[in-house]
């Protein structure tokens, strides 16, 4: 999950040191990816099933295509956005490094000023800035000024693979359930499974985000339900037109 640019003395190079907040962010991103997979794949398979309820091969093909297309699109988007963010962070760190080498006095004053803004007294801010500058000036500036941990770049590949997996896991729920041998009632069985899945993802993201659970679950279920109603209606219209 991280590439080590620098290893602090006394720190093991492979020791994980992400904080809990970061881990929760990853978990939340995973749940959101799964939610996307559930909703978009449900929309596709239920739409096709609305048009040709008996054609299991068409439903399976469309569902699998939706899974693969969605997973690649999510992974690609994630790869591009994390790469860009990492390039930006690297450029900011490089600039900070240059400034620290060229004008250490100004940088020390700047750091002390930032600690003062955060509520420390001028004397204490000065002392903290001096000690942190002696310890690791770049890390102190990166954290306070830029909000970056220079040891903790996110890997775009890890981000891409995680979203690919998260989306696929979600997409498998409607795809697998609509292919169960339940005959004509497959649309309803799939819709119920999807709503249960959305209840779970809504509940987990509310818990992770410390938000009220009821409204989060309700919103999630209403959006997913609206998606399925819309694509099912399209399927019915086209099914009637074709037959
Ligand atoms: Zn600085």
Automatic annotation (TrEMBL):
<dbReference type="InterPro" id="IPR008217">
    <property type="entry name" value="Ccc1_fam"/>
</dbReference>
<keyword id="KW-1133">Transmembrane helix</keyword>
<feature type="transmembrane region" description="Helical">
    <location>
        <begin position="157"/>
        <end position="180"/>
    </location>
</feature>
<protein>
    <submittedName>
        <fullName>VIT family protein</fullName>
    </submittedName>
</protein>
<feature type="transmembrane region" description="Helical">
    <location>
        <begin position="26"/>
        <end position="49"/>
    </location>
</feature>
<keyword id="KW-0472">Membrane</keyword>
<feature type="transmembrane region" description="Helical">
    <location>
        <begin position="187"/>
        <end position="209"/>
    </location>
</feature>
<dbReference type="Pfam" id="PF01988">
    <property type="entry name" value="VIT1"/>
</dbReference>
<keyword id="KW-0812">Transmembrane</keyword>
<feature type="transmembrane region" description="Helical">
    <location>
        <begin position="56"/>
        <end position="75"/>
    </location>
</feature>
<feature type="transmembrane region" description="Helical">
    <location>
        <begin position="221"/>
        <end position="242"/>
    </location>
</feature>
């Amino acid at each position: 999950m991280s590439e080590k640019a620098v290893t602090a003395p006394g720190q093991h190079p492979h020791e994980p040191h992400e904080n809990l907040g970061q881990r929760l962010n990853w978990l939340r991103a995973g749940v959101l990816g799964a939610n996307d997979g559930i909703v978009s794949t449900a929309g596709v398979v239920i739409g096709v099933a609305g048009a040709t309820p008996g054609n299991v091969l068409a439903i399976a093909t469309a569902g699998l295509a939706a899974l693969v297309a969605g997973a690649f699109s999510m992974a690609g988007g994630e790869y591009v956005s994390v790469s860009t963010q990492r390039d930006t962070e690297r450029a900011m760190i490089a600039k900070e490094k240059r400034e620290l080498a060229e004008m250490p006095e100004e940088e020390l004053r700047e750091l002390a000023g930032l600690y003062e803004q955060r509520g420390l007294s001028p004397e204490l801010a000065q002392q903290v800035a001096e000690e942190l500058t002696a310890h690791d000036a770049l890390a102190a500036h990166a954290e306070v000024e830029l909000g970056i941990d220079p040891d903790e770049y996110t890997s775009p590949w890890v981000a891409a693979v995680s979203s690919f997996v998260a989306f696929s896991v979600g997409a498998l729920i409607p795809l697998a359930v609509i292919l169960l041998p339940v005959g004509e009632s497959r649309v309803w069985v799939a819709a119920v499974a999807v709503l249960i899945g959305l209840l779970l993802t809504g509940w987990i993201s509310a818990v992770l985000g410390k938000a009220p659970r009821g409204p989060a679950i309700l919103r999630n279920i209403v959006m997913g339900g609206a998606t399925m109603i819309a694509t099912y209606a399209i399927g019915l219209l086209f099914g009637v037109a074709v037959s």
